[in-house]
Amino acid sequence: MENNKGFILLSRSLIESEIFSKPPLYLKVWIYLLTRAQHTDYKGLKRGQLYISIPEIQEACSHFEGFRKETPSYRNIRTIIDWLRNPCGGKHGGQHGRQSDGTMIGTTRVTHGMLVTICNYDIYQDFNYYGRQHERQYGNHTEGNTEVLRKTKQRQNINKHDKYITNIENNNSCSSNGNQEKFDELINFYVENFGMINAFIAQDITEWEKHFTQDIILEAMKVALKNNKRTWSYVTGILKNWQKNNVKTLQDVQALETEFTNKQAKRTSFSKNKKEVVPKWMNQEKQEQQEITPGIEERRKNIEEWIKNGT
What we know:
By secondary structure, the protein is mainly alpha-helical. It has helices at about 25-35, 55-60, 75-85, 130-140, 140-155, 160-170, 180-195, 200-210, 215-225, 230-245, 250-275, 280-310; strands spanning about 50, 65, 70, 105-110, 115-120.
């Protein structure tokens, strides 16, 4: 069976490295990151980079013991990521894909995850890195193997996020309402601000392109961010509201937002100026009490006068 999913190269010296002496989960996470990294620059990612989250690593590195699923804890994965960023405290370096300061990966925090950069990524993709040593041992027998691996290297090896987008492109899912460059901008904006994208969301974006321009869809994402809502369902709610109000252009969006702001201001002003309505019977009761009070006071004075005269 032909393998068209790409490859990574691991040196035999791996068994002599620090990571091999760590618990098995360390090596499992490391290999998972290597296989998920981009082998070429693609969709805003550089060669050797990937978007990932700790929960995703937890799920990918889980296993079954009988019928029971064992999932590594968030803390365990966080510890391993920290170790890969600085194995052995940076005291050793230059081997097994580490930089001179000992770093195996670099991480940058992004929305709902992190951007991971594999250090010295070429070591895991370029057979020539090992070929020179192999040639010295086996001579020209290496040449054929090198050519096979070089051809294999040219095959597609994109991560899960990119496969979703590629499938959509191959199926011509992008509407005639926009262009591919703008569609890529929508996808990149979502990934950078909302987190990892999946096939459902990417397909949903293309469906909304049948109703709105790509600029309006992008504006809906920006409105969601302004309201501190980072979910696709919230963006969908905005688009449905705009569709209901027959929004066609960005000017229509601005007009709708202005109308909404004016209504809010009017409601606030009405609430401040609103006078309390007092029932008529309450005023009548109050007046009756005022009429009764003078009579009681007059009787009290008469009683006091009578007692005084009587004594």
